[in-house]
């Protein structure tokens, strides 16, 4: 049986620091800080609820990050 993979460590970064930033700049900053996946979503988007280590989610309205969370 194959071993269960160990998830990579998430960047030591506070998602709240992205709120209020312009979306493309926030995405670039997140990638520079080590997030492997950055997902931009419109308000109220239907999404799956699985947690993906290393992913940062942005809720974007009018080109600005309104909410940000890990996973």
From TrEMBL:
Species this protein is from: Streptomyces xiangluensis
Domain of life from the UniProt record: Bacteria
InterPro entries: Prot_inh_I78
Protein name, UniProt field: I78 family peptidase inhibitor
């Amino acid at each position: 049986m194959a071993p269960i993979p160990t998830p990579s460590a998430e960047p030591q970064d506070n998602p709240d620091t992205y709120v209020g930033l312009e979306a493309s700049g926030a995405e670039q900053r997140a990638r520079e800080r080590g997030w492997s996946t950055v997902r931009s979503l419109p308000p109220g988007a239907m999404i799956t609820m699985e947690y993906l280590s290393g992913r940062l989610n942005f809720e974007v309205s009018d080109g600005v990050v309104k909410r940000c969370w890990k996973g």
